[in-house]
Write a structure and sequence with these properties.
CATH architecture of one domain: Sandwich
Mean pLDDT: 91
Helix content: under 10%
Oligomer: single chain
CATH class of one domain: Mainly Beta
Distance between the termini: 49 Å
Strand content: over 45%
Length: 810
């Protein structure tokens, strides 16, 4: 399995420091002789500046001071336009890990990171990292640790490897930061270094592993005077061209189509604290393919967001879990309703699979007094399905009305890493189509030591009266949490209530409503090496849920498990839970019906080798035993990564998931009976990826995936009113099995030819097949899906970054 290294984790999971921590401060020096960013620390200003040093290890042995021959020295100076960092990392040159990767992927390289909390609120921060091979990584942090690694800033850096180890120089322009207008500035500061040779990570300001969060444990950067935020205005115009081929081989329909597009992204600093981001006529043709699956559940599949505009700088909008950006510019809102509007003799000739995004705008930032403000707006174009009757006459049916999506957020930071938030989302549709509105009030309160917390949320939804079900379409959801999140021993309680009308799904993601749930968990965590362990986290928990209206028990579960890291850096996950008998009010797919869910027992095992090795791998196995029909299900597989060279890495994933004698909803009979089936199912997923990086600005990536899943129905039952299953001949459903295959290839070449500017070429291949007869054998299915007609798409995109300040200098 391919794991992306998330840099925030080095702080908040396993940091280390002495109990009595004195606040560290470092004085930045103003300079009139800005250093040349070439990786050489020979500029006069570096020779005249004292370094920050005495970094402390926080992984794997918290509290251990760096040795003299492996020490880190960092110097910070600034002028009227930027802040500069010069760093020396002492080491043996052969001990410096230097895997070459494209931007935002530090992989198996040593790195240096600088984190600035420019408002000193100890909740929000900006991080800038550079690897020993020059790869840049940047991120925004919120809530004292949540990482937005999709945020990209334009800054400069260079590194050098020499006989003493390696050096790094960074230039971070003020246009990449947000800060207040005070004449004298004090910022939060932390610096970190990773030595990949022995999985060692150190930081300048020590991090206590027993305290939740890392920004709240930063040091301070002082001495910054007389700086001002510059005019922050940039344009990123793009042009793209796409050619698509699918062998329809039908008269009057082209197999090959092409398009040429152009648009622009705009960033404008409204003030020192707030930024406007706008995308006009965006092109998302090069985003990575979704991992499509065969979904047999009553709930929709949630896919990852791969469009950068919707992932970058959205930490404010994601509060409260009410924003699912895939609602915008993806499936048309009323595509599934087209069938119900067909007249006798009409058939669908064309039904759009996505809605066209016309533009999107974000305004976000945080004031000096800690008030975060966010505004998001997007508009999607009206779309139609084309239908035809037996006489060849055509007409259009609206599949997606012109729609406007809005989010407003107010988030006030408080003392002790606490905050209160108001968030509103609304969808306004043209014409008679219904509108939707959701408001949420959130609070997260911590004690002075960031040890105990209380959190809560109140959410209220209103869906327009045009929705079937009458005019009373307002609903609510309440959440409450409390616990202890710092220390070796932790605990937490959670309460969640949703009435049967709460519905945030027009712009959010919510599986189901009409429930009351309680959860309680306790944990014991070891943060320092002990016997065979570097560290471990263990837990025990219970969960219980009821239906809200009419009140009825649904389910309960008890679980335990843990995560263990050994001194050889192998890791082990163990999880066990017991699901007790209950009632499922969603699986029948008919309101007022219920299914008596059987008790089941689950066990999970995952083992991974040391990830710093050139070859590392993992295996996993889980089993679930269901008491009904003596059902048995397994998940087993492996993943392996091989760093062939510092420029070439390969990865392979494989998993198989057989299920025997499981039961689930199948459909409605002609007599309107709810039919279940007992079935066997097998799911096999295999993936391959390879990355070759020419340098830190240019690389090529290929990814292939084959997914096969089936459902072989063995016996049929109808669901009685008491929730039990009773034998049924299933005559209407015999022979209607399910066999689903999807195969896709993504190949992307990217070249960052200038700061913020990129040329990319993307090739996509997709074939998908759904059958009602089982096709036994993995390779028979692979042969089938690769032999059927395939869609091939190739696109070229050029995006050029233009900084207004650079234009006026010319």
């Amino acid at each position: 399995m391919r794991f992306r290294i998330i840099i925030a984790g080095f702080f908040w999971v396993f940091g280390g420091i002495c109990e009595a921590q004195e606040l560290r401060k470092f004085n930045a020096v103003r300079t009139d002789h800005s250093p040349k960013i070439d990786g050489e620390l020979d500029d006069r200003v570096w020779k005249e500046t004292k370094p920050a040093s005495n970094f402390i290890e926080f992984k794997p042995l918290p509290g251990r001071v760096e040795t003299e021959d492996r020490r880190t020295e960092v110097k910070i100076v600034y002028d009227n336009t930027a802040i500069y960092i010069g760093a020396r990392m002492y080491d043996e040159p052969d001990s410096v890990f230097r895997e070459v990767m494209p931007r935002d992927n530090l992989a198996n390289s040593d790195f240096l990171g600088i984190v600035f909390d420019t408002y000193l609120d100890r909740i929000n921060a900006f991080g800038f990292y550079v690897s020993s091979t020059g790869t840049q990584f940047d991120a925004k942090y919120s809530n004292s640790g949540n990482e937005d690694n999709n945020w990209d800033a334009v800054w400069d850096s260079q590194v050098k490897i020499d006989s003493l180890g390696w050096t790094a120089e960074l230039k971070i322009p003020y246009s990449a930061l947000r800060f207040g207008s005070s004449e004298i500035q004090e910022w939060g500061l932390n610096m970190t270094r990773r030595r990949h040779m022995n999985n060692q990570q150190t930081s300048w300001s020590y991090i206590d592993p027993k305290i939740s969060g890392f920004i709240n444990q930063e040091g301070e950067l002082t001495g910054i005077k007389g700086i001002k935020s510059p005019i922050r205005l940039s344009f990123s115009p793009y042009i793209s061209s796409t050619v698509n081929n699918y062998p329809y081989n039908l008269a009057g329909q082209n197999n090959t189509t092409g398009s040429f597009n152009g648009g622009m992204d705009i960033k404008y600093g409204i003030s020192q604290s707030f930024t406007l981001d706008m995308t006009l006529v965006p092109d998302f043709g090069q985003i990575r393919s979704d991992n499509q699956v065969l979904n047999l559940s009553p709930f929709e599949v949630r896919f990852n967001e791969n469009r950068q505009f919707f992932t970058e700088g959205t930490e404010l909008f994601n509060k409260g879990n009410l924003f699912y950006s895939r609602r915008i510019g993806s499936n048309p809102a009323f595509r599934v309703n087209v069938n119900s509007k067909l007249l006798p003799g009409e058939t669908i000739q064309e039904n759009p699979t996505e809605s066209k995004l016309l533009n999107a705008t974000k305004i976000s930032g945080r004031s000096a007094n800690g008030l975060g403000i966010g505004f998001f707006n997007a508009v999607t174009k009206r779309g139609f399905a084309r239908v035809e009757n037996s006489l060849g006459e055509e007409r259009l049916i609206e599949a997606h009305p012109l729609s406007n999506y809005n989010i407003v957020v107010l988030d006030q930071s408080l003392k002790n890493n606490s905050s209160v938030t108001f968030l509103n989302t609304n969808v306004i549709r043209q014409g008679s189509a219904y509108d939707a509105n959701v408001s949420s009030f959130l609070a997260n309160l911590n004690d002075r030591n960031n040890k105990y917390y209380v959190s809560g949320a109140g959410k209220f939804s209103y869906v327009g009266a045009e929705v079937p079900g009458g005019s009373n379409n307002s609903g609510f959801n309440y959440e409450l949490g409390a616990g202890k999140k710092s220390g070796n021993f932790t605990w937490g309680y959670g309460f969640d209530l949703s009435d049967n009308k709460f519905d945030p799904t027009d712009l959010g993601y919510f599986n189901n409503n009409n429930f009351i749930s309680h959860s309680f968990d306790i944990g014991y965590n070891l943060y320092t090496p002990w016997k065979i362990f570097n560290r471990f986290n263990t837990y025990m928990g219970i969960f219980r849920t009821h239906r809200y209206l009419p009140r009825a028990f649904q389910s309960s579960r008890a679980s335990t498990g843990g995560y263990f890291e050994f001194k050889n850096f192998w890791t082990l996950n163990l999880d066990f839970y017991r699901q007790f008998m209950g009632k499922d009010f969603y699986e029948p797919r008919v309101a007022g019906k219920e299914f008596n869910t059987p008790a089941s027992t689950y066990a999970n095992f995952r083992l991974r080798s040391n990830p710093i090795r050139k070859y590392n791998a993992g295996v996993f196995f889980s089993a679930r035993l269901r008491e009904q029909f003596h059902g048995v299900g397994y998940v087993t597989g492996f993943y392996q990564n091989f760093r062939v060279k510092n420029r070439l890495s390969l990865g392979v994933d494989f998993s198989t998931q057989p299920q025997y004698d499981y039961s689930a909803w199948l459909g409605l009979s002609k007599a309107k009976e709810i039919i279940f089936s007992r079935f066997d199912r097998n799911t096999i997923e295999s993936m391959f990826d390879a990355t070759y990086t020419f340098n830190s600005n240019m690389g090529i990536m290929v990814r292939g995936r084959h997914y096969w899943s089936n459902r072989n129905n063995k016996a049929f039952y109808f669901l009685r009113d008491d929730g039990e299953l009773q034998d049924h001949d299933g005559a209407e459903f015999k022979g209607t099995h399910t066999n689903y295959n999807v195969f896709n290839i993504d190949l992307v070449y990217s070249w960052r030819f200038a700061p913020g500017s990129e040329l990319s070429v993307s090739y996509k291949n997709l074939s998908e097949d759904m059958e009602t007869e089982n096709r036994a054998g993995y390779f028979r299915n692979f042969d089938r899906v690769t032999a059927i007609p395939q869609n091939n798409n190739i696109s070229l995109k050029i995006l050029y970054y233009v900084d207004y300040l650079q234009l006026v200098k010319k």
